[in-house]
Amino acid sequence: MFYHSPVLLKESVDALLEVKGEVWVDVTFGGGGHTREILSRMGKGRLLVFDQDADVIPHLPDDERLIFINENFRFLKRFLRFYDAIPVDGILADLGVSSWQIDKPEKGFSTRFDAPIDMRMDRREQLTASKVIAEYSEEALTRIFKDYGELPNARQISSRIVKLRKERPIETTGRLREILLPLSPRGLENKFLAQVFQALRIEVNQEMEALKDLLLQAAETLRPGGRLVIISYHSLEDRLVKNFMKTGTFDGEPVKDFYGNLLSPFKPVSKKPLEASAEEIARNPRARSAKLRIAQKL
Q: Is the distance from CB of 84 to CB of 23 less than 8 angstroms?
């Protein structure tokens, strides 16, 4: 099955197409909702679409304006240059995992199934979550769960994994769930497991590094006045996006020239992010954590 309810669909595409142009980029095809909406409203021009998951290919819209690139968006500039598409007028990124990916047991993203702990967005890559669990040191695992899962008991989690993997390999989501549930705060089991799985997924797919690459390359490939539109789903992503849109740096520390002028490639369109309405959240609970930020290239 292939399905997905695109989050903040109207708001994000409105923001992208508010400026006139002919070259657009959707760096996260996912379930295709944003791509189809852009195509329905953009008129003439080109839409370059990225997705590293080859499973989306049979579901691409049949539209001569669409150019599909089966790669990670961290290679944005390379492929825009290849297609002679620089500068572009707008870039849209929906950083969430598609519903159909979460609900596909063999991908290993969900805590609801007992399946191999894979978590690769791109099956051509070698690193899986099961390899991380089997081979990373206790210190490396602690860093992942602390930095990417924001788990206060990261040390306990990594220690338990290292201890129990010696007794029996931890190769399925069911086994991982079984050994970690005793460490979960009472009543918050689902949230706890979601944070553990998020941390592993981020590490396997190098998501934070890829996002940094995207932001830097967006600054290099957007034309002045062009739009950068990003939907994020957890604080780690949103903090990076917010800081870069505001200051041009990932840590939020502004860099100024000799005269005290801020050296930032972007200007945020609004101070606060847009969030899903109560109606959209009721229809699609996964929209609850979404934050939409918009910036204009200076």
A: no
Nearest to 201 by CA among 272, 262, 125: 125
Look up residue 72 and give its two tokens.
Answer: 């990670």
Shared domain for 147 and 199, answered yes or no, is: yes
Block means of pLDDT (10 residues each) for the chain, 298 residues, are 77 97 97 95 97 93 98 98 98 85 71 87 95 98 98 98 96 94 96 95 97 98 98 96 97 91 94 96 93 98
Q: Token pair for residue 154? A: 């990261």
Give all strands (DSSP E) within 108-232, no chain letters. Answer: 222-232
- Rounded Cα distance, 137 and 117, in Å: 18
Q: What gap in Å lies between CA 268 and CA 263, rounded to an integer?
A: 14
| Domain span holding position 78 | 9-100+207-297
Domain boundary among 145, 173, 205: 205
